[in-house]
Specification:
Number of strands: 22
Region (Disordered): 29-65
Largest sheet: 7 strands, mixed
Strand content: 25-35%
Distance between the termini: 28 Å
Structural class: mainly beta
Biased composition (Low complexity): 29-38, 46-58
Number of domains: 2
Radius of gyration: 20 Å
Order of helices and strands: EEHEEHEEHEEEEEEEEEEHEEEEEE
C-alpha cells in the first residue's frame, strides 16, 4: 500500500534561471501521482520570508505572470483539527496577483480540481517560501523549531504545549530547504494545549477525495450517517465525525458513508468502491495501473481495517485513477 508511480522532476537552476520546467499538461495520470517516499537531497535556492518581492533581474519570459507550465499538489493546513479552507477568493491568483505578482509561484485557483489543490508556476521555490506567499500565513524557524502564523495568531514550536509538524507525504521536511515538486502532498499540523478535549466523546475530521472530487463538499450527504457509535451532525462542520462508546475502525467509518465501501484484497491492497455513476463512480484497486489510493491519519499511513479512530484524528482518503479529469 505504498505510494506508486515515482516521477521526480529534474531541474537545473542557475543565476535565477529555470531550465527544463515540465508542465502539467504533459503529465498523464500515472506521472501526476508523484512518489512521496523517494528522498532527494537538494540545496536551498532561496530563503523564505513573510514579504516576497519579484526579482528585478527576471527576464520577460520568467517574470511573474508566465503561466504556460505549472505544477499541482495538495496542502492541508490544520490547527487543532480544524482544516483551513482554501476555497476562498483571498487565496485565488486572479484576486491577488496584481498587488503581489510573486504569488504566481504558489497559490490556489477557483477552478482547481480539488478544494486544497495548490498551483506552482514559473519558478521552483522552497516550501517555506510557498507558505509565506499565502495571504494570512507566515513561516519561520526559531532554535530549529517551526514557527507558524495564521491570521495574526502565532504558533511557536519552542513553547511548551505547542507542537508544529510539517510533512511532505509521510516524510518530515525542513521547509527552508525542501523545494516544491509536482504531486507533493503537504501537511502542516498545529496542536496546542487549548485543543485538548475530554474523554467522554471522540471527534475529528474525515476528508475523502475521489478523482479530484471531495465527497460531502456541500455538507448534506454525511448528515444522514448516524450509527450507534459513529455520526456526522448538522453543526456547520462538513467533515467532522463523532464517535461515542467503543472506537470504530477507519474501514467501519468509511462503510457508514453513503455509496462507499472499503475492503482489502488478498494481498492487503486497498479496494475502494464508490457507487455513483459518471466519472467518479466505480470500484478501484490500489494494485491496478494508473490507480493510487492513500489512507492516512494526517501524514501517517494507516491500515483502515485495524486502525481505530482517536480523538482529534484527521483522516484523509485519496483515490486517484485514470478517470480523474486532466488538470491543466
Amino acid at each position: 500500500m505504498n505510494d506508486k508511480h515515482p516521477t521526480r522532476r529534474r531541474v537545473l537552476l542557475g543565476a535565477g534561471t529555470l531550465a527544463g520546467l515540465a508542465g502539467c499538461t504533459g503529465l498523464g495520470a500515472k506521472e501526476s501521482a508523484t512518489s512521496e517516499t523517494e528522498t532527494t537531497q537538494r540545496e536551498a535556492t532561496d530563503t523564505p520570508s513573510p514579504t516576497e518581492t519579484a526579482s528585478p533581474t527576471s527576464t520577460e519570459e520568467d517574470a511573474p505572470g508566465y503561466i504556460e507550465d505549472h505544477w499541482h499538489g495538495r496542502l492541508f493546513f490544520e490547527i487543532d483539527g480544524d482544516i483551513v479552507d482554501f476555497v476562498k477568493p483571498k487565496y485565488y491568483l486572479d484576486n491577488i496577483e496584481d498587488e503581489r505578482p510573486e504569488t504566481v509561484y504558489f497559490h490556489f485557483h477557483e477552478s482547481a480540481h480539488a478544494p486544497n489543490e495548490w498551483s506552482n508556476e514559473k519558478q521552483v521555490i522552497t516550501f517555506g517560501r510557498a507558505l509565506n506567499l499565502l495571504p494570512g500565513i507566515e513561516y519561520t524557524q526559531r532554535d530549529g523549531e517551526h514557527v507558524v502564523s495564521y491570521e495574526g495568531a502565532t504558533y511557536d514550536g519552542t513553547n511548551d504545549g505547542t507542537d508544529v509538524s510539517i510533512h511532505r507525504g509521510t516524510e518530515r521536511i525542513d521547509p527552508t530547504t525542501y523545494e516544491v515538486e509536482n504531486g507533493d502532498n503537504f501537511w502542516v499540523s498545529v496542536r496546542t494545549a487549548d485543543g485538548s478535549t475530554d474523554d467522554s466523546e471522540r471527534s475529528g475530521q474525515l476528508v475523502v477525495d475521489v478523482n479530484n472530487r471531495r465527497l460531502n463538499e456541500g455538507g448534506e450527504t454525511f448528515r444522514g450517517v448516524d450509527t450507534d457509535r459513529f455520526e456526522f451532525r448538522d453543526d456547520g462542520e462538513r467533515y467532522r465525525w463523532y464517535n461515542t462508546g467503543d472506537p470504530v475502525t477507519v474501514a467501519e467509518a468509511l462503510g457508514a458513508l453513503p455509496n462507499v465501501e472499503y475492503r482489502q484484497d488478498s494481498a492487503g491492497e486497498h479496494v475502494f468502491e464508490y457507487g455513483v455513476g459518471g466519472d467518479y463512480g466505480g470500484t478501484y484497486h490500489d494494485a491496478a495501473d494508473a490507480t493510487k489510493i492513500l489512507v492516512r491519519q494526517r501524514a501517517t499511513a494507516v491500515d483502515p481495517t485495524t486502525y481505530e479512530l482517536q480523538d482529534g484524528d484527521v483522516i484523509w482518503v485519496y483515490v486517484h485513477t485514470e478517470k480523474a479529469p486532466d488538470n491543466h
